Amino acid sequence: MLLGNGNGTFQPALSVALPPQFPPGYTGATALTQLPVAVAVGDLNADGKLDLAVGTQITFSTPYIGYYGGTYYRNSTQAYVDVLIGNGNGTFGNPSTYVAGSNPPRSRWPTSTGQQARPLDRASQHRRLVGEW
Fold it and tell me: What distance in Å separates the CA atoms of residue 98 and residue 83, rounded to the nearest whole number?
């Protein structure tokens, strides 16, 4: 994330850590890292401060026994939305993580545009597709 200085330049890049997850169906002992694929910025809680909604996904393999007894692996993708409430000074609170579905269908991100602010009431994600409602 790059914060602006207000004069066309930016401060050094900041990283936001998202919590690792144990997706449904995953049988491993170690939580998996979320891969960010989309982001929306807007005032999600109507407090006048910019917040982030980050669409992430985790892809993992699970073993299964085939019809004739062989072991095979099935790839699964679990989608999440992480909501980070802005503090108003370029920092954010801890992320709240929501399951967004496995192998998610196409959907759009809410964004706030225009002169008047409007509340954002839904956040969902899919493979780098960012749009306006």
Answer: 8
**Local structure of 80: helix, strand or coil:** strand
The pair of three-digit structure tokens given for residue 61, joined into one six-digit string: 């393999």
For residue range 63-97, list pLDDT tens digits in order: 889 889 899 999 999 999 999 999 998 889 999 99
Render 22-37 in DSSP notation, one character per residue.
Answer: --TT---SSPBPPEEE
Residue 59 to residue 104: CA distance in whole angstroms? 12
- Per-residue b or e along 44-57, where b marks 16 or more CB atoms closer than 10 Å to that residue's CB: beeeeebbbbbbbb
Please check whether residue 106 is in contact with residue 70, taking contact to mean a CB–CB distance below 8 angstroms: no
In this prediction, residue 102 has a pLDDT band, given cuts at 50, 70 and 90, of: low
